[in-house]
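Quick check before the chapter quiz. The format below is the same one you will see on the exam, so make sure you can read both the input and the output lines.
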Amino acid sequence: MSHESQKLRMSAPPSTEALREIGLFGALSDDVLEFLATTLPVQMVEVGEALFREGDQAREMFVVLGGEVEVLKRTRRGAEARVALLGPGDWFGEMSILDVQPRSATVIAVAPSKLLRLTSESLDALYRRDLKAYSLIVLNVARELSRRLRVADGIIADFFADVLDEYVAKKPSRG
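Here is the expected output.
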């Protein structure tokens, strides 16, 4: 389904209490949570719908309010491998807010999902309204990116250790 048709399936805004439970909005005041709840669009997506595809240009991110999405990364051989499964409270697409690079992965709904959409424009509006709140959101994004990098580093280290163990085990002995 196209991005245009997704815009037609908007939903009621979340409550400030619901936003307060999401790590991205940690430490924000009630006033800022109310502003976000009333200004950010909520979008409904169905199973199998792609929110975006690897290589797409964009300047928006999403917060999962309900449902579940999978993050797929294309391999060198062209297959798509699942790299994450995200549910309520998780967010994705934040890299497009921070840099101007194409999307690094594909995201597809695996359950009917309710998503909060933040664009670079909506974050700019928050910046102009409340610099502290904007800074907290950026810091929360940075913390999550750091956590994800630590996980990826661990996976890479384990992979190399396994490959090295396999290589050493198969290496013929000299003697």
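If your answer matched, good. The first strand starts at residue 10 and ends at 11.
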